[in-house]
Amino acid sequence: MSTDAIKVTGARENNLKNVSVQIPKRSLTVFTGVSGSGKSSLVFDTIAAEAQRQLNETFTAFVRNFLPDHGRPDMDAIEDISAAVVIDQKRLGGNPRSTVGTITDINPLLRLLFSRAGDPVGLPPSAFSFNDPQGMCPTCEGLGRVVELDLDVFVDRTKSLNQGALLHPDFSTDSWYWLSYVKSGFFDNDKPLADFTEQEWSLLLRGEMPQKLRLVWQGNTLNVKYEGLAAKFTRLYIKKEDMSERNRQVFQRFVCSAPCPDCAGTRLAPAARASRIAGHNIADLTSMEAERLGVVLAGLVIRSPDGHTPTG
Ligand SMILES: Nc1ncnc2c1ncn2[C@@H]1O[C@H](COP(=O)(O)OP(=O)(O)OP(=O)(O)O)[C@@H](O)[C@H]1O
Ligand SMILES: [Mg+2]
So where are the chain's domains? Predict the structure, then answer.
């Protein structure tokens, strides 16, 4: 019997009326027809759904708990299908979470592969997804980049604090925030920031103080905790959920985006990054150019638990 075609017999999903077709492999086949004629019902709901179901059946009961189970499509038989990669009709672009892997169905397959064969074992497929709370890097929340204070824009190093070295409007001379630095006692307020020592920079950006500062501002006396510029900026602007449009525009001028220092841009939590197959973690594989990925995957020999090497 030839295996050069996918043979579908008696497909009855949705409006399909016992459709039997043979679809040649290794060539491009196009399904055309008026809207509602059943193209998606045949291609996605029957062929791709059955391919996915058969693939899912090869996993252990534990792993299958994490996979969707849509049941068997309504049809008599399907022969000679292999794993399907679905590229959906969804629009591309516009989402910072999209990659070639998320747009095609390759990522779910790689997650299954790692959940089954990754060393150390024991993670469910969702732990390999940067869009899942279990799998995402906690620092950048799975985006791979973090937003940071852009110090070169925030300060004018040629100026002292008294001359208005802090350029963000909320930190202007005589403002409440400005006062907390000038009255901290940490700095010579007439010294240009370019002449600050390492230690002074460190105090300005990340300094802490055990006791509270006593500040008089617009007739009121207030006790406040000293907070370094980096921490204050993060708390006031970066971690802030809603912001007025004006504040957002100001904010955009003072930040830059940098690769996440914890996941190095891979977007994944430590456990997912630690799991390896043939020396590669899942981020190595998803960042590979497709042809090289094919070579690496083809070179893997996966043994079933009873020790023999399945073919196919
Ligand atoms: N989940 C569903 N439940 C019930 N009926 C459905 C479902 N999906 C599709 N149908 C119906 O099945 C028929 C075929 O729909 P299908 O989406 O397969 O058509 P199509 O040829 O892909 O159309 P289009 O060109 O608009 O994508 C339509 O009458 C549709 O309303
Ligand atoms: Mg369709």
Answer: 1-84, 99-140+260-312, 148-259
